[in-house]
Amino acid sequence: EIPSFQFFEKIGSSNDAALTWAASGAPDGALVIADEQTQGRGRMNRQWVTVPGAALAFSLIFRPSPQEQEGISLFSALAGVAVQQALEKTFGLPAEIKWPNDVLVNGKKLCGVLVESVWMEARVEAVVVGIGVNVAPSSVPAPEMLLFPATCVETEADRPADRLLLLREILREITAWRKHLLSSVFYQLYSSRLAFQGQWVKVSQPGDQITYGRLKGVRTNGCLLLESEAGDEIALTIGDVHLRLG
Ligand code: BTN
Q: Which InterPro entries does the UniProt record give (predicted)?
């Protein structure tokens, strides 16, 4: 099922290893997995801490088909959906997707996704999808917690969680949903598991820009849709969603 994989006990970032491998011919579906990352990276240039033994950190390499090229931004949604589904089905957790692809349980983050692309002649040659899941509680404070409260699978499920079993379930969901990436079933699932639907949110974007609005959903291309106080529709392609308090 998985044509090829690389395992590292300790590495800078599994996404960096995957980008290098992608540039030197890694096959579609290739997997890089790391027990510990010393330079783990998050979205918008943030740091991501991977505690050995407590986290699941891996990167997948996809070679998009000509058809998938049309919905290339959906690979990011695919990762969020796959983790959401794995947590819902395997652990019975009420997991939700915080746009574009963080996974929350009970309002706290337990998974982040970093998607990066390898371009060649104006076309995406490979997509690297990096997934980090907090599996077991850790005593190391996560810097990303300052931005959003964090949790882990074992705390939420109230039982031990096997990292490899979770990895297998996530890979299974990715393989299954990738076939439906451009179809309405995928779009409906992504929409239905979106956190903060109908609520007033604040979206912070690079360059300290902040947009306020009521969260309406996503477009089929993965854009976030807000409605401004004046009733205008706003579509966003990047940012961090927070509930607007007060
Ligand atoms: C985020 O929430 O900002 C995204 C975090 C993504 C973390 C994963 S862990 C595996 C892969 N390697 C990295 O350096 N980052 C991603």
A: aa-tRNA-synth_II/BPL/LPL, Biotin_CoA_COase_ligase, BPL_LPL_catalytic
Task: Tell me the backbone φ, ψ of residue 103, rounded to 5 degrees.
Answer: -115, 130
Other Cβ atoms less than 10 A from the Cβ of 146: the count is 9
- Locate the ligand 1 atom nearest the alpha carbon of residue 55 and give its number: 9
- What pTM was computed for the model? 0.95
Domains of the chain: 5-192 (3.30.930.10), 200-243 (2.30.30)
Whole-number pLDDT of residue 144: 60
Residue-wise pLDDT for 189-216, tens only, equals 999 999 999 999 999 998 889 999 999 9
Which value does ipTM take for this structure? Answer: 0.99
Q: Residue holding tokens 């961090």? A: 240
Question: Helix, strand or coil for residue 52?
Answer: coil
Greatest pairwise CA separation for the chain in angstroms:
52
Residue 201 CA: distances (Å) to CA of 102, 125, 240: 16, 35, 10
Helix (H, G, I), strand (E, B) or coil at 39: coil
CA of 229 to the centre of ligand 1 (A): 34
Closest CA to 59 of 2, 131, 165, 134: 131
Q: Whose CA is nearest to atom 7 of ligand 1?
A: 132
